[in-house]
Amino acid sequence: MDFFRNFPFFTIILAMVSGPVSSVLSAKKARILSFAVVFSCAVLSALTLVYTLGLDGPFVYTMGRFPAPYGNEIRAGVLEALMATFFCIIMLLSLTGGLKYLEKDVPAEKQNLYFIMINLLLASLLSLIYTNDLFTGYVFVEINTIAAAGLIMIRGWGRNILATAKYMIMSLLGSGLVLVAISILYGITGHLLMSNMHESVGQIVAQKTYVEPLIIAVGLFSVGLAIKSALFPFHAWLPDAYGYSTCASSAILSSLVSKGYIFLLIKFIYRVVGVEVFKMTGADDVLFLFGIAGMIIGSVDAIMQTDISRMIAFSSIAQIGYIYMGLGLGVEAGMVASTFHILAHAAAKSMLFVSSNGLAEVSGGSTNYRDLRGSGIRNPAAGIGFLAGSLSMVGIPLFAGFTSKVYFAQAALLGASFGKEIVTLIALAVSTVLNAVYFIRMSISVYTPRMNAHYEDRTFRAGKAYSLSIFLFILIVLILGILSNPIFDWISLGLKQFS
Amino acid sequence: MSRIRSNYDSSFRARFRRYIRGEEELKDVDYMPLFKKQMDEERAEDERATEHYLVPPIKDPMEDARLYAEYSGIKWFRRLYQVMAVLLCVAICAVLIYNIAFMPGFGSEESPMNNEVSERYLSQGEEETGVTNIVTGLIISYRGFDTFGETHVLFIATIAVMILLKLMKQEKPVVAEGEEEGGDIILTTIARVLVPLIFLFGFYVLVNGHLSPGGGFSGGAVMGAGLILYSASFGFTSTAKFFNEKIYDIVKVGSLLLYSLLIVYNLFTGANGIASVIPLGKAGEILSAGLILPINILVGLEVACTMYAFYALFRKGAI
């Protein structure tokens, strides 16, 4: 069984090595390799999850000949393994669902480059999940940023390149702030390993020596990652970046890339500064406020759109707001709810992007509301996927979104301060209604038959891979919604193992 | 029982239904012609829509970007955005300057950075990794995984530039074949003297990385600069005689894969407590320090390729 300890390392290396290999392969072979890598990473991560559940606590894995504070190390607990498994599965399904559109959107000569980006993105996500060293985290944040930029611009439209430029500027600002924060923290703690930093931070707070730099570093780190994951005032790059890229890119970007950063932030809160110190700095209140603002403003913006991709992109801003609101609640239950929402949102949002591309396909390629009318009838698989995703986003019982909203409300009622409790409940209610306005509208519109039969193409078939991916997406959303208890327990256990 | 209302069109229900359908508000007057017109428009739009499937409204990417930038968003808001961006930068600068006042002094003895970690690097680094240049030992041996990631950052950056700039077969090259042959006489004469020296120096920095300041990244950058100088003065055609896309692929992917192999060996054996069979040798000799020398050379090749690839992609859209 001890061999299982190598699996996180294997997944990272497998994904990294497959990148350079893909660059000399043909598009088809690169695609096969990429699918094989993502699939085997999912299997290995699932085995790691099984293994960690059998252990008493997390295990550390020395990356090299030298033990922790001197060399690199990764750490795998229940939560890390769960996230890794989930991210691999979502990536696999997004690729399966988006494959058809990828072939249309990306020129054949550049398709192998796309899969290099996918492989290295996976490697960076896995490293962000498993890393126990803040600087290793930064290195992979860099890879993640560049890979995401590649995924956005590969479609080659002018607006994609413009969106990439916006994304790069904002994202590099975020990376810069994160790097500055890491340097400050290194300056005052003398360590880069999370466990040692945690000890030093405890001493700093006890001795009150470097409290100001600590507060500034925590602030810069949180803001840096908030910019990268599009928290409300820094969201301007997001709609263009998600809205116009190819199907698999939008699905992966919205569900995984931003979530990887949020997971790093959760790790930072627990493993580096500690929840109590994080609350002391006041960063949680700031995240809470902007999270709430994002929930409302993202939804209002989404209502004003006339383009389905942009609508879903704006809805992402609202959902990121939910996650930050949970982080800002300042209670354990809020963190658990946020982590659960990472899963719930990732599954539903990637499904929405995949299905909206399917709907556009039977509407002459247009993503405009008018053209999409009745498309759910023309492409049943995409229609059902969109409906299920919408229901989850709005928060209808049995779907994942409902469960996470219940957890958020519970977290607010149990333990959060009175002010935050009231604000959270009101914001949840308002945001749910706003979500319902645009998602239910779109769902009704998608299932309203057109008056003229111009588009009625009875020969359209969605394709087996596409339907399978939609089916599995719905399954995941339902599992997260109905059988949430074991997953919830794993997340709580994993977060306990963090501290 | 609901009664039939004469003003159904302006009722909330009717407006809501129209909103769901995405229709425009209809005026009370003369209903049928408007409806017909709308149907016609819809049909025309349907026909147009099928044409532009997955093709942007404007074919030229630059034009599309320009128009999109000009017509999307709200004008005054963009002004506000610019002002806010400047304010944000000023605020960040202010915070960072304020922060300096509280940081431990630069090079001060009490700084928390002077702890057991740096002490071990300095006191045992030579013994444990076999290097006399501790920095190289630190980045390639102690924190080898970070450097492995960092090398992949360079790799993925080249791929990203390739996505953006690499010309496809049907596109016209930016620089026509043989256009810049011969070059400038001053440039070629000086390059003839300098390029061998630059290569030699780069190679020296590369292979002495474990003995003196330098290593893969700096040596590779020097060699890359030499390649760029060569192709700038003698043209791409003469460069292609010894460095074309095929050789580039072989060197780049080969060095990365070999590097991966070495690092996997290092990490896997280290983590599982298997003793390494590679001797560290005597510190200070050129053939010492175990895997550090080959890794330095491989990283150097990768960096040189990256440097040249950026240049070539920007100049002519191919390697």
Produce the secondary structure layout:
The complex is a heterodimer of chains A (about 500) and B (about 325).
Chain A: H1 7-22, H2 27-54, E1 59-63, E2 72-76, H3 78-105, H4 111-130, H5 134-153, H6 158-189, H7 194-207, H8 211-228, H9 238-243, H10 247-273, H11 275-281, H12 283-303, H13 308-328, H14 332-361, H15 369-372, H16 375-378, H17 380-394, H18 400-413, H19 418-446, H20 464-482, H21 484-498
Antiparallel strand pairs in A: 1-2
Helix pairs in contact in A: 1-2, 1-4, 2-3, 2-4, 3-4, 3-10, 3-14, 3-20, 3-21, 4-5, 4-10, 5-6, 5-10, 6-7, 6-8, 7-10, 8-10, 10-14, 12-13, 12-19, 13-14, 13-19, 14-17, 14-18, 14-20, 14-21, 17-19, 17-20, 18-19, 18-20
Chain B: H1 12-21, H2 31-51, H3 61-71, H4 75-100, H5 116-129, H6 134-142, H7 144-165, H8 185-207, H9 216-242, H10 245-271, H11 292-316
Helix pairs in contact in B: 5-6, 6-7, 7-10, 7-11, 8-9, 9-11, 10-11
Our Rg estimate of chain B from Cα atoms comes to 32 Å
Q: Mean pLDDT score of chain B, rounded?
A: 80
Going by helix content, strand content and strand pairing, the class of chain B is mainly alpha
Query: Which residue ranges of chain B are poorly predicted, with pLDDT under 50 across at least 5 consecutive positions?
Result: 49-55
The largest sheet of chain A is: 2 strands, antiparallel
Number of strands of chain A: 2
Helical content of chain B (DSSP H or I, runs of 4+): 55-70%
Count of domain modules of chain B: 3
Given helix and strand content, the structural type of chain A is mainly alpha
Main beta sheet of chain B: strand number and arrangement? none
Gross geometry of chain A: globular
* Number of continuous helical runs of chain B: 11
